[in-house]
Every structure is written in C-alpha cells, then in structure tokens.
C-alpha cells in the first residue's frame, strides 16, 4: 500500500516537471556526454524526454557547445582537409574558418558534418604581415603534429591584431591540436586537446606562451571508467622573424607536450603502489589471505586486548 | 529503462548522483528499478548510542530512518522499524565484527557495515558495505591522493539446501574515484564503476560467514585487479594511441581483457 502511495505521489511530481526542467535535464546529459558519444546520449535522452520539440531545443543549445568544447574536427566537403570547431575560428554559429586553406565551412552542429564551403573574405583573414607569422607557425606545427600524433589535426588562428600591417604592435596567435579516437565497437573513446596561446609583445620583444592540454578517455565494456586530465603551461621566448619564431614556438610546444606525456606515464606507473594502495591493498597488512576459518580467534583476541586495555 | 541504463554507463561515474536523480525525476514509474540497478557512492551516518559510524543503503532503510548495525536501532528513531530475527541478528553482529577486521587489514581505515535479513523463501540476504576515503585529508596513509574514494557493495543471497550445503549468489559493485594534482602533471583524474556476479554451492560446515567472507574477498580482489589492470590500462592505452610515446621509451602495455 505504502508503495502505491509513493508512486502516485511521484507520478504527481512528474506531471509538475515543467518543460523547462525537462529541457534542462536533456541539456545536462548532452553537456556531460563523453567525447564521441553525444549522438548516443542524444538518442537516449530523446527517448526519455518523449517530446521532440523540447529535445530539439536542448540539442540546438548543447551540440554547438559540446562540439566547441571538445574541439571537434570535421572533414571539409571537398576532402581537402579538416576544420576544427572552436571559438577561435567561429565566424557565426554555423560558420567556422579553416585558416590553412583560407576557407569558411558551414557546419551542421547536430549532424556533426560540414555542409558547405566558401573562400574566406579579406575581412575574415589576417593582414599579409600577420599571415607571415601565422603561416610559418602553421607549417612548423603541422610537421610536429604529423610526427607526434597519428591522427592529429592542427590549426593556427590570429585572435588579436589581425589587421596590423606593420611591425611595432602586439598581436596574438592561437594554435590548436585536436586528436581523437572513436572506437564504440571496442567500447572506448578518447581525445587529446591542446590550446597554445602566443602573445607577441612589441615593447618587451618577447612572445608569452600559455598552454592548456586536456585528455579524456572512456572505457565502458561491462563497466564505466573515465580518465580526465588537465595541465597548464607558461613559457616565453624572444620575438624574432616569422620563420625563427615558428621553429622556436614549435620546439617549446613539443618540449612541454613530451614532458607532459612522460609525467602521465609516471602517474600510471605509480597507480598500483602509491595510489591504489591508499584505497584498497592487494593483500591484507598481514600479507596473507584473511583467515575466515579462524575468525573466532579474532573475537577472543579482541576481548582479551579490550580487557588488557591494549589495541583499539 | 534501457535508454536510462545506457546513459548511466556513459556519464562519468563522478556525476552518477546527479544523473540518477535527473533520471528519477524523469521516470518516476521506474524509480524502484532504477534504484535497484544503479549503485551510488554510500552515505554515512552516526550511531549516537555507540558513537560509531555506519553506512546507509536501501537494505537498512525504513521510511527516512536507517538501522545501525552496532546498536540495532534506527536513526533518526523509528518506532516499529523492522529488525532481523534473533538468530540472524546474532550472525549480523558476528559478521560486523569480523568484517571490521577484514576491512582494517585490506583498507587500513574506512567504514564497514553488514546487514542481514530474512529472504522470502527459507534463506536470507546479507549486504556487506565498505567505504574508504583514501585522500590525504582522509585516511590515505601514503598521502598521494588529492581525492580518493572507494565504495564497495556486496549483496549475497543465501539459500541453504537439505544436504548441508547452501547456494550463494553474490552481486558486487565497486565504485572508485581518484585524483592527483601537482605542478608537473597537472590534474589526473580516474573514476570508475563495475559490477559483477558470482554463484557458488558450498558446504556450510565452516559456517555461512566463512563462505560469504571468502567469496567477497575473492570478488573484491578480482574487481580491484580488473579496475587497475584492465580498465585503467585501457585508458592508458587510449592516451598512447592518441599520442604515442617516442620510440625507444615505449612502455609495453599488456593485452588484457576484463573478467
């Protein structure tokens, strides 16, 4: 009887779940979808919400955010390369600049596909002066990405001062590296995202470097295990010619990323001893299996130590 | 229901509480199914009579109160809250005592609780719970973890047979989350949950507690290994796939499959 009452109450509560609450729930699940799995999450949540209008609202809000946050890469319709979905290349909510080929891709966020391509206008591209720096860095970075990432995609954007056409001014470039592996048939997905910001400063003649790397991995065969890591870096180098800057900046990126990978390996190596052991040991402190057959002994010992006032 | 469970294996285990409460509000008619199929990290309460902590689950709950295994009373107080039979309570007391020692030996800290109650048939069900905070601010002896939680839930159905044996069916869930943070490696976060089942027919000569204890010990060790070797190994493999370590220093990853 009590159960029936509870259920009736809860059913009543459901009726009060407003459209906004339902949509918020859908947005929450979509926003927390692991990399490469948003379409599966979308399918589930669409079924559960049972209201396509609300689902569409949630999807049109969540997919662009998810695609940008995960630096989704999409193949261009002419197969000439890939465009990275990132705020740094966003022209409007469905158009993204691909700086290497100076094209703008039209993107369907929910289908996660490029639907169109046009040449970028002059307004959308940096000045020839800035382009020299951007282009040189892109070339060097491409070489590095090709050698370090089996499936890495990179792009370099000018995010400040793109119209500067003479030396003597500050400007910023941002380099993005995005590598992902989707293998739903093997129950695993993962991604590596690097964002490197280079601030070219005229007064100090230095380039300030800020980096952020995030890695995510999800393995879910008969379980659910997720890795997420994040690290930030700061560095600087001398403001030089476009070519020299490109080589120097790429070396710095390579150095930090390799070091970071090594520190991750070290974390994994320490996992069994120093980390896992603080949760549960592999063997008891006695280093032998627990003597279940002899537990009476424990009770006696415990009583004895209690009486003698020793132990716990 | 299928869609709901699929979501639960996709959303990070660190966010399972929010995910479950969202699903419960969306699917009130499936609340008991969801609650029985989705495990969450355990909550702790204090038995103010014995001044000892105990763990909360559906099996020691009645209305909004939970029965403590130490004093056998409900907190907050509840009149007429169901209690196990005298015979089962005796086993429960012993199980709690022995399981505390087991927990201390494997976990070097933590909280454990055992609840036993009559089954519909002639058998009984026992639920063994362990919670450990292994972070450096908690009970992590080595102090390497910024955050480290381990929750184990073992539910074991026991059906004694005529011939002096009993059928034991164990369902175990382990949930864990660990995080380290330092200058060179930034934040490193691993979270996971797995659930497995195992059934055995055993002679009750040495007693139920002995049989249940051995099964749980065996299962916990298997699940721990599986998480450490297979599941965490797979995430490491993924990192190496995305950006392989330079040749020469490549550390070989053993091919492994989950149990």
From TrEMBL, chain A:
What InterPro entries does this protein map onto?
CapZ_alpha, CapZ_alpha/beta, CapZ_alpha/beta_2, CapZ_alpha_1, F-actin_cap_asu_CS
Query: Does this entry carry the keyword Cell membrane?
Result: no
Where is it found, in Gene Ontology cellular component terms?
cortical cytoskeleton; F-actin capping protein complex
Q: Which family does it belong to?
A: Belongs to the F-actin-capping protein alpha subunit family.
Q: How does it assemble?
A: Heterodimer of an alpha and a beta subunit.
For biological process, the GO terms are: actin cytoskeleton organization; barbed-end actin filament capping
Enumerate the PROSITE patterns for this protein.
F_ACTIN_CAPPING_A_1, F_ACTIN_CAPPING_A_2
Q: Which GO terms describe its molecular function?
A: actin filament binding
- Role: F-actin-capping proteins bind in a Ca(2+)-independent manner to the fast growing ends of actin filaments (barbed end) thereby blocking the exchange of subunits at these ends. Unlike other capping proteins (such as gelsolin and severin), these proteins do not sever actin filaments.
Does Magnesium appear among the keywords? no
List keywords of the entry alphabetically.
Actin capping, Actin-binding
Protein's name in the database:
F-actin-capping protein subunit alpha
Q: Name one Pfam family in it.
A: F-actin_cap_A
From TrEMBL, chain B:
A Pfam family name for this chain?
F_actin_cap_B
Instruction: Identify this protein by name.
Output: F-actin-capping protein subunit beta
Family statement drawn from the similarity comment of this UniProt entry: Belongs to the F-actin-capping protein beta subunit family.
- Tell where it localizes: Cytoplasm, Cytoskeleton
State the superkingdom: Eukaryota
Q: Which GO terms describe its molecular function?
A: actin filament binding
Gene Ontology biological process terms, A to Z: actin cytoskeleton organization; barbed-end actin filament capping; cell morphogenesis
UniProt subunit comment: Heterodimer of an alpha and a beta subunit.
Its biological purpose is as follows: F-actin-capping proteins bind in a Ca(2+)-independent manner to the fast growing ends of actin filaments (barbed end) thereby blocking the exchange of subunits at these ends. Unlike other capping proteins (such as gelsolin and severin), these proteins do not sever actin filaments.
Q: Which SUPFAM superfamilies match?
A: Subunits of heterodimeric actin filament capping protein Capz (SSF90096)
Organism encoding this protein: Carex littledalei
Q: Which GO terms describe its cellular component?
A: cytoplasm; F-actin capping protein complex
What's the chief localization of this chain? Answer: cytoplasm
Q: Which UniProt keywords are listed?
A: Acetylation, Actin capping, Actin-binding, Cytoplasm, Cytoskeleton
């Amino acid at each position: 009887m009590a159960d029936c009452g509870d259920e009736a109450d809860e059913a009543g509560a459901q009726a009060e779940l407003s459209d906004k609450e339902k949509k918020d729930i859908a947005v929450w699940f979509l926003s927390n979808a692991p990399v490469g799995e948003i379409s599966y999450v979308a399918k589930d949540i669409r079924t559960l919400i049972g209201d396509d209008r609300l689902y569409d609202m949630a999807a049109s809000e969540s997919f662009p955010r998810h695609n940008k946050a995960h630096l989704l890469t999409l193949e261009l319709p002419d197969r000439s390369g890939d465009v990275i979905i990132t705020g740094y290349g966003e022209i409007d909510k469905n158009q993204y600049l691909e700086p290497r080929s100076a094209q703008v891709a039209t993107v369907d966020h929910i289908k996660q596909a490029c639907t169109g391509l046009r040449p970028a206008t002059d307004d959308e591209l940096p000045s020839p002066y800035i382009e020299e720096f951007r282009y040189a860095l892109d070339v060097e970075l491409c070489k590095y990405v090709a050698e370090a990432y089996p499936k890495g995609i990179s792009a370099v954007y000018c995010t400040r001062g793109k119209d500067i056409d003479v030396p003597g001014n500050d400007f910023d470039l941002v380099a993005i590296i995005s590598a992902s592996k989707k293998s739903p048939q093997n129950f695993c997905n993962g991604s590596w995202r690097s964002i490197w910001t280079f601030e070219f400063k005229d007064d100090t003649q230095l380039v300030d470097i800020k980096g952020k790397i995030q890695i995510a991995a999800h393995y879910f065969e008969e379980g659910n295990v997720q890795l997420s890591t994040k690290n930030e870096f700061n560095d600087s180098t001398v403001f030089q010619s476009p070519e020299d800057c490109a080589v120097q900046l790429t070396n710095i990126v390579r150095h930090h990323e390799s070091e970071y990978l090594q520190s991750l390996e070290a974390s994994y190596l320490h996992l069994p001893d120093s980390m896992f052991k603080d949760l549960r040991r592999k063997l008891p402190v006695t280093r032998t299996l627990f003597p279940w057959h002899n537990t009476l002994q424990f009770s006696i010992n415990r009583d004895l130590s209690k009486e003698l006032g020793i132990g716990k | 229901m299928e869609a709901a469970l699929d979501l639960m294996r996709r959303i990070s285990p660190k966010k399972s509480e929010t995910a479950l409460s969202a699903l419960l509000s969306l699917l009130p008619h499936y609340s008991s199914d969801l609650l029985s199929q989705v495990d969450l990290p355990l909550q702790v309460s204090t038995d103010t009579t014995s001044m000892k902590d105990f763990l909360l689950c559906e099996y020691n709950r009645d209305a909004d109160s939970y029965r403590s295994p130490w004093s056998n009373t409900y907190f907050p107080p509840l009149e007429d809250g169901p209690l196990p039979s005298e015979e089962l309570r005796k086993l429960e007391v012993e199980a709690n005592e022995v399981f505390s020692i087991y927990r201390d030996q494997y976990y070097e800290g933590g909280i454990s609780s055992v609840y036993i109650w009559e089954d519909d048939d002639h058998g009984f069900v026992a639920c063994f719970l362990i919670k450990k905070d292994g972070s450096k601010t908690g009970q992590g002896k080595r102090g390497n973890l910024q955050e480290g939680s381990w929750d184990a839930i073992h539910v074991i159905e026991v059906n004694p047979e005529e011939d002096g044996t009993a059928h034991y069916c164990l369902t175990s869930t382990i949930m864990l989350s660990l995080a380290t943070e330092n200058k060179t490696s930034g934040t490193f976060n691993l979270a996971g949950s797995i659930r497995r089942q195992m059934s055995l027919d055993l002679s009750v000569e040495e007693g139920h507690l002995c049989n249940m204890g051995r099964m749980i010990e065996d299962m916990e060790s298997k699940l721990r290994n599986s998480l450490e070797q297979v599941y965490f190994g797979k995430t490491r493999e993924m990192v190496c796939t995305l950006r392989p370590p330079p040749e020469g220093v490549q550390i070989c990853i053993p091919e492994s499959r989950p149990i």
